[in-house]
Amino acid sequence: MPLIECPVSPLVPKLKGVHLFGFDPAPCSQRVGFALAEKGLLRERAVSFMNDSPRNLQTTKDKYIFRNVSLIKHDNLTEAWSKIQPNMVVPALVHDGHLYIESMDIIAYLDQTWPKNPLRPTDEGAARLCDELVQQGKELHLSIRHITFHWSLGAIGKINAATQATLNRLQADGSPDQLAEFYAKFSQDDIDKNEFIRHLHLLESGFAAQEARLHEDGRQFLTGNTFSTADIIWAIKMLRLSECGYPLAENFPLLSAWYNRIQHRPAFRQGVVGRYRFFHHAIRFKAGIENLFGKGIRSSMRAGAEDE
Ligand SMILES: N[C@@H](CCC(=O)N[C@@H](CS)C(=O)NCC(=O)O)C(=O)O
């Protein structure tokens, strides 16, 4: 359900042009930033998410305003955000007063609305594969969350009892993203270490399947020889794993070569990594130190897992 018919927030109907509500280091937000850049839509400026000064209500043609929802400051766990995204996660996109949520649905909407540089293969078989890989990528998002919180954020990812109570109160009933449930367990150290390792291994199995596919016929991209949304969703997973110090090239050489090709795309640089250099280097540095002392993600890799 990408379109929210009657958004509660009074800000939404006031916004003209394209506005992306997101957080630069967050994978789901990065997916949309990447797709916007592939479409040739450039970031005009960044403002705080509820900014309603008249100059920030309207964007210029082929540009978008980035509305920052800081996950570090827990902007997403506020009432104002719950009125825009009832599941209290990023991203959300507003186009001419219409609100869209769910990153991959937003990308599909962008692809329909801006047909330049199509992101869905025209060949039927490749399109089917693309849908399949996007679906697998979505299902693995919970694994990326576990990996990020365990191997990147650690204690700074925890929330206090008051914030938890606010989140419990505001999160939509039956939210598919289950943020309140996740924070309740993570903040109380109530997730078993093996659960994090299980999520890492799920991702590794996903990567192994892509590696095998690239091996089959030397294709350039995951669905064939044209870039697609499947490349977007999987490349963003690689980015997070590499930030955690995971040795991609050692374990998945073909996928790693594919990821290098993606990294060289101007849209990846403009829409994703160019946007959060400090955070990117900071988490890589932290991961490097932890791996050095045997406490990082490397010690839990499938090949290195002793408890299997
Ligand atoms: N299904 C949603 C998932 C969104 C999601 O989980 N977003 C994460 C960032 S990648 C988030 O906002 N997390 C909130 C938090 O960690 O507090 C989508 O694809 O848009």
What does this structure look like?
- This protein is an alpha/beta fold and 308 residues long.
- It is built from 13 helices and six strands.
- It has a six-stranded mixed beta sheet with strand order 1-6-5-2-4-3, with helices on one face.
- A hairpin with a 2-residue loop joins strand 5 and strand 6.
- The longest helix is centred in the middle third of the chain and has 25 residues.
- The protein is globular.
- The C terminus is likely disordered.
- The chain binds glutathione (GSH).
- The site of glutathione has 14 residues, from helix 1 and helix 3.
Structural class based on helices, strands and sheet pairing: alpha/beta
The rounded distance between the terminal residues' Cα atoms is 40 Å
The hetero compounds bound to this protein are: glutathione
In the sheet with the most strands, the strands line up as: 1-6-5-2-4-3
Give the total of beta strands: 6
Our estimate of the beta-strand percent is 5-15%
What is the molecular shape? globular
Poorly predicted runs of 5 or more residues: 304-308
Helical fraction:
40-55%
**Main sheet record:** 6 strands, mixed
TL;DR?
With 308 residues, this protein is an alpha/beta fold. Helices cover 49% and strands 9% of the residues. The longest helix has 25 residues.
Annotation keywords:
binds glutathione, disordered C terminus, 308 residues, alpha/beta, globular
Write the SSE topology.
Layout lengths: L2 E2 L13 E5 L4 H12 L3 E7 L14 E6 L10 H4 L9 E4 L2 E4 L1 H11 L10 H16 L1 H13 L7 H10 L8 H9 L5 H25 L11 H15 L4 H4 L1 H11 L2 H6 L5 H16 L16
Parallel strand pairs: 2-4, 3-4
Antiparallel strand pairs: 1-6, 2-5, 5-6
